[in-house]
């Protein structure tokens, strides 16, 4: 505990020093400055147990189980802005992960870094900051970023969240219209402390060369989202380029419609992706369509999803990231070449029964028509099939001394005839303390 608190105190001091070293105008030191008055800081403690049992293993990695337990701390600081037409501020984040249980035969859960000796690191940490500049309703950030974009979704699905290093611009000058653009030069993965170049996944498989991940130092993006109809309807158009690996176009439509006591929803999206520049990852050909329809009544929400891949490849995305695909779930992504998949899902919010903070959900997804190739069949192609069942239960304390303390349990069964079968369990305990 002494070690943990010491590391956190050092991280806190570093956040302050980083803000000063960024060379902000002198006005930020004024006690009544909005830089301080609008500043917020939170500390989240996250205890994470993750277990995956593999069977009918496909591929060179014959590890039969990945199981680790770790403790994470996430310190977030966001300042306000200095006075004047152009405002300056700082966003900063400090991350610390501690190993609680692991072994050489159970690594690679994504919770902890795996060292060259095949064992998980005892701890890892990171401190980063971004300078932000605001003019009217347009904001520029340079430094440590955690974007959440259709072409680069925020993947906070393990112990600590990933981050990127680069620049982003967001403009909301026109009511309902959000314009964004930026360039990212490197990333800090969810289980790493250092900066690395950005790699690509195509479907569920990373693109490698001689065993190493193929990488680049530029991810460029631009996009627009427009909300109208009292914000019940929105459309989006995006372009992304992982330089010399792939480029991608994305279009979306979302709508929500009250019908009596029900609220009906639709979430539709389309990706069109191809190889880029020097084609370091080879030729890429993918078109992906997804639809997720919903119907909400009281505490009940029902979902029906359909997803289809076209072209010679699965959906490309930045390495270790999720995507906004309607049928992408915790274990299988159902985005392999030519795959077609259906989803049935049911969520219930127990607040409708007077138990606020308790939620539960179950979903089932089945995919087929995968253009699979078996290494044990002399390279022969065949139809791949897979399915996944997820059960999630979560509770967040609403009142009292433990208000904000959360518990989440996830159980997954995933089966396939072209990739390893998985039985998965996760237990996540979290608590967020508001510092100011």
Describe the SSE topology.
Blueprint: H1 2-21, H2 34-37, E1 40-55, E2 65-78, E3 86-101, E4 123-135, E5 138-145, E6 163-171, E7 177-188, E8 198-202, E9 205-206, E10 208-209, E11 212-213, E12 215-216, E13 219-228, E14 233-242, E15 246-259, E16 262-275, E17 285-297, E18 300-310, E19 316-318, E20 340-349, E21 358-373, E22 381-396, E23 406-416, E24 421-434
Antiparallel strand pairs: 1-2, 1-24, 2-3, 3-4, 4-5, 5-6, 6-7, 7-13, 8-9, 8-12, 8-19, 10-11, 13-14, 14-15, 15-16, 16-17, 17-18, 18-20, 20-21, 21-22, 22-23, 23-24
Report on this model:
The radius of gyration is 23 Å and the shape is globular. The protein is mainly β and 436 residues long. The strands form three sheets. The protein has an 18-stranded antiparallel beta barrel. Strands 8, 9, 12 and 19 form a four-stranded antiparallel β-sheet that branches. 6% of the residues lie in helices and 56% in strands.
Uncertain parts: 1-22
| Global morphology | globular
Task: Give a quick account of the main beta sheet: strands, pairing sense, barrel closure.
Answer: 18 strands, antiparallel, barrel
Mean pLDDT: 92
Helicity, as a percent range:
under 10%
Structural class: mainly beta
Measure the end-to-end span.
23 Å
Q: Rg from C-alpha positions?
A: 23 Å
Q: Give the beta-strand count.
A: 24
Order of helices and strands: HHEEEEEEEEEEEEEEEEEEEEEEEE
Task: Report strand %.
Answer: over 45%
Number of helices: 2
């Amino acid at each position: 505990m002494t070690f943990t608190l010491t590391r956190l105190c050092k991280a806190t001091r570093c956040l302050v020093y980083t803000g000063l070293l960024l060379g902000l105008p002198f006005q930020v030191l004024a006690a009544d400055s909005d830089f301080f008055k609008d500043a917020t800081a939170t500390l989240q403690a996250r205890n994470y147990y993750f277990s995956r049992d593999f069977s009918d293993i496909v591929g060179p990695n014959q590890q039969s189980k990945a199981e680790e337990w770790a403790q994470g701390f996430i310190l977030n600081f966001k300042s306000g802005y200095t006075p004047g037409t152009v405002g300056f501020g700082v966003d900063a984040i400090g991350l610390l992960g501690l190993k609680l249980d692991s072994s050489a035969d159970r690594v690679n859960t994504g919770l902890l870094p795996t060292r060259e000796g095949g064992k998980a690191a005892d701890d890892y940490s990171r401190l980063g900051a971004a300078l932000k500049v605001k003019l009217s309703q347009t904001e520029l950030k340079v430094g440590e970023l955690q974007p959440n974009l259709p072409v680069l979704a925020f993947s906070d699905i393990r112990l600590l969240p990933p981050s990127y290093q680069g620049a982003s611009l967001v403009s909301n000058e026109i009511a309902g219209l959000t314009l964004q653009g930026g360039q990212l030069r490197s990333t800090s993965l969810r289980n790493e402390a250092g900066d690395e170049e950005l790699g690509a996944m195509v479907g569920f498989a990373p693109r490698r060369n001689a065993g190493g991940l193929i990488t680049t130092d530029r991810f460029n993006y631009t996009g627009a989202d427009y909300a109208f109809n009292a914000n019940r309807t929105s459309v989006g158009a995006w372009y992304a380029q992982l330089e010399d690996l792939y480029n991608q176009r994305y279009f979306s439509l979302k709508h929500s419609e009250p019908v009596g006591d029900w609220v009906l929803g639709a979430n539709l999206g389309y990706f069109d992706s191809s190889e880029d520049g020097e084609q370091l990852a080879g030729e890429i050909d993918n078109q992906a369509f997804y639809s997720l329809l919903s119907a909400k009544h009281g505490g009940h929400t029902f979902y029906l999803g359909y997803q289809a891949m076209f072209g010679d490849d699965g959906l490309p995305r930045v390495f270790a990231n999720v995507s906004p695909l309607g049928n992408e779930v915790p274990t299988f992504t159902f985005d392999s070449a030519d795959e077609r998949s259906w989803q049935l899902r049911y969520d219930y919010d127990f607040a409708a029964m007077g138990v606020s903070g308790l939620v539960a959900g179950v979903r089932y997804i089945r995919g087929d028509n995968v253009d699979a190739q078996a290494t044990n069949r002399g390279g022969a192609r065949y139809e791949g099939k897979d399915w996944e069942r997820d059960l999630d239960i979560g509770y967040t304390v609403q009142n009292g001394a433990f208000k904000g303390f959360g518990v989440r349990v996830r159980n997954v069964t995933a089966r396939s005839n072209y990739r390893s079968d998985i039985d998965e369990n996760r237990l996540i305990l979290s608590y967020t303390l508001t510092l100011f």
